[in-house]
Amino acid sequence: MASKAELVVRVTSARGSSKITYSTKGRYVSFTTAGLAEQLLGQPIQPTSSLEVFWLSVLAAVQASITELE
Fold first, then answer.
1. CA 28, CA 58: separation in Å to the nearest integer?
2. Is residue 1 one of the residues assigned to a domain?
3. What is the tens place of the pLDDT at every residue in 53-69?
4. Domain limits at 26?
5. Is residue 32 included in any domain, yes or no?
6. What parts of the chain have a pLDDT lower than 70?
7. Is the residue at 56 inside a domain?
8. pTM higher than the cut 0.85
């Protein structure tokens, strides 16, 4: 069976802000990709003009968070 690396992103909204959570699991070849798990609290409301704009905004926040961990 092929190895699988996963990035799980969840977005919730409440009272004028968003919460983005993400976590990683799995393997890529022999490299373990599990171990990242963060909650980004107090994020701005994400744009909803299109699916692409929404996810680009969410993924930009996730990427910025992962970059800060380096």
1. 24
2. no
3. 999 999 999 999 999 99
4. 7-69
5. yes
6. 1
7. yes
8. yes
Contact criterion met (CB below 8 Å) for 18 and 43: yes
Check residue 2 and give its pLDDT.
80
Length of the chain: 70
Please tell me the distance from the alpha carbon of residue 7 to that of residue 55, in angstroms, as a whole number.
14
Measure the N-to-C terminal CA separation of the chain; round to a whole number of Å.
Answer: 31
DSSP 28: E
In a domain, 35, yes or no: yes
How many domains is the chain built from? 1
Question: Cα–Cα distance between 33 and 13 in angstroms, integer?
Answer: 28
User: Which 3 state secondary structure label does DSSP give 68?
Assistant: helix
Is residue 40 within 8 Å of residue 65, measured between CB atoms? Answer: yes
Question: What CA–CA distance (Å, rounded) separates 47 from 57?
Answer: 7
